[in-house]
Amino acid sequence: MQPGWVWLCGAGPGDPGLLTLHALNALRQADVVVYDALVSEAILAWAPQAEHRYAGKRGGKPSAKQRDISLLLVDLARQGKRVLRLKGGDPFVFGRGGEEGQTLVQHGVPIRIVPGISAGIGGLAYAGIPVTHRDVNQSVTFVTGHDQTGETPLSLDWEAISRASGVIVIYMGMKHIAPIAEALRDAGRPASEPVAVVCTATTPDQQVLETTLGTVVEDIAESGLEPPAIICVGRSVLMRQALDWQAMARGLAPRDTDPLGRGRPAESA
Fold it and tell me: Where is the Tetrapyrrole methylase domain (predicted)?
């Protein structure tokens, strides 16, 4: 890292082991780390030499304004500091990294972009759910569960998404799961469609709720689960019955080695 630069880095979905080497090197070199709510203390501990500045944004709670965060990065860089902007997941996947990067460039601040593992892929993988599986889907759609106002995104064409994508991954969707589930059912997805809700993914506190599109609202309410969460809609959720590797690590056998009912042996390498 060079003085006066800002590195926009993804911290991954939670498990410190999912950091990239570039992000780890940045943590060890930074003068100041401006971090989000989903960045753990275990990750920040790799930057003991740096000043830690919290800039988290959580729905329904007092949060820093995005413009203030972006201008803070500009000010720190202009002070000649090595600035690490550390964001949960990937900074360019519903992380507003593009907005921050654009502000920095407009103010003449040099940047480096370091991608991270997005929770919509890595978080589901930790739950044993592949976002693509050739017997299930040839496409996957990532959507946000709220827009800039914090409400359900009205600009999304749920009918088109439902028709085109076998698997739908919803970020930040717990608050508005009722209208989202209704929109998907109205768009033709059956009430029996498998759904998984993965909370605090990849961390020791990870919790997974397996449900259906018809009962997801009631099941979330009864479970007491809280954000942050990733919601997956589609038959790939069934693969968790065979691929729940964390359960296998605890000595539990797969519930079903062929959850899709295809009965096809694996092809030889």
Answer: 6-216
